[in-house]
Write a structure and sequence with these properties.
Strand 7 and strand 8 form a beta hairpin. With 365 residues, the chain is α+β, with helices and mostly antiparallel strands. It has ten helices and 13 strands. Helix content is 27%, strand content 27%.
Amino acid sequence: MLLSPDALSAALAIPDLSADSTHAVRLVVDEVVEALTQRWRVPAVEHRPHPVVDVADNYDRLGYAPDAVTRDARYSHYVTPTTMLRSHVSAGIPPALRELATTPIPDVLLVLPGMVHRRDAVDRHHVGTPHQLDLWRIVRDHPMRAADLAEMIEIVAAAVVPGAQVRAEPAVHPYTVDGRQVDVRSGDEWVELAECGLVAPAVLAAAGLDPTHWSGLALGMGLDRAVMLRKGIPDIRLLRATDPRIAGQLQDLAPYRPVSQQPPARRDLSLVLDAADADVELLGDRARAALGPDADALEELSLRAVTAHEELPARLGTRPGQVNALVRLLLRPVDRTLTAEAANALRDRVYAALHEGPVQEWAAR
């Protein structure tokens, strides 16, 4: 399950908003880095490696187990058997640490912003190409401890969402010890902002940094969600909108002013699938690929019900090992009105890409 050359080219052509100095995604990066370097009085070194990385850097050298489910080709985009589109910006950390081992800086903040590629659900809070920011403070001969991690959490949260209520809950990551998940209060709910911890000694040792002398703090944050929290943006697709009424508001970190939208067009699909394919993240990824440049019109894909072959009527023509999946599409571009005819055409493109049964139902034919 390797990416085709066309799929790879399409993925690499997607603009990385964290590299746009005027976009709100980058403005959040700058505010957080400035807050940390001012408090700690340390230099920041930014790394922006190529999106195609060694699988070993993306997984092995960060401590992921050989059988970790995230390695499965259903969830990661492999380019060759040994390279992949990075699934997190942490893939740039092993090379950055190796460089630090060659040219030591006794106290430094490693800054890795960028876009990543993953299979994910389709809804207002998730896309297949989110932006992330990794911040790793690496220190020699001054052990980092839980109190230092708590300080980092406080600085980052205050920079992203000033005045918000913050909590840090225990969490497990393969490349940290004493891990934490950082949540902030947004309205009536807690929303995850970041994950962090003390850098695992094995990660340092693998890069050539003696963990008896070196230690560190590691924090990873979803930049899209950070911007949405900061500005009060309700839909992640708005971050890439071209409508001037929306795009103009993404040049600063001021509160977002809603732009009127039409109701979504709902289309329900009855799909025959192999049982292993009845996964909302996999279906979402395939739906995005089928729609290509029109993927921004897909607001949400949800899996409503799954029925096994043995429970289905013969008229559906399913085989053992297949299922009938009821999938709902919500179609609503963020910057234009969608006609019923256009919605049906989009529905049929998704249906053609996902349906594996002999009996077909088209909306526009």
